[in-house]
Amino acid sequence: MKRLDEPFEVTIDEVVQEKLKLLELQDGDVLADLGCGDARNLIAAAKLANVHCIGYEILPEALKAARKNVDAEHLSNRIKIVESDFLNANISKVTKLILYLTRNSLGKLSIKLEKELPKGAIIVTHDFDIPGWKADKIIDFTSKEAFLFTFYVYYVK
Measuring CA to CA, which residue among 99, 155, 156, 157 is closest to residue 129? Predict the structure, then answer.
């Protein structure tokens, strides 16, 4: 498997909730998280709406945490964790996409996103924008601990 030197960082719950709001989740959506880490985005999404979630991850410690967390929440019937490089992810039926990747990886993903995501899909990234794309919304968010995050929202046209 290819390693793209992405950080494995735990996203704070406040940021997870804000990103999920921006995705405008609806029952029946298919949500993917490319580089899902410990699956906290997917678990929170499954608690908010009746969505089908797919997380892609290659880091062994993150995979182990993701599977453990999904099982602990009894959500394995709605959340699938796939051990695969996100460049090989099947995103053709994804209606909502959540990403926390560096601009380097987002740049590598951009053509795949353009070619494979269905029209109407919504992408939310944080801290890093997708090179060559113009975000439909850019939102600055300050956490309770006074950390500043920037969210980028894209609507696939």
Answer: 99
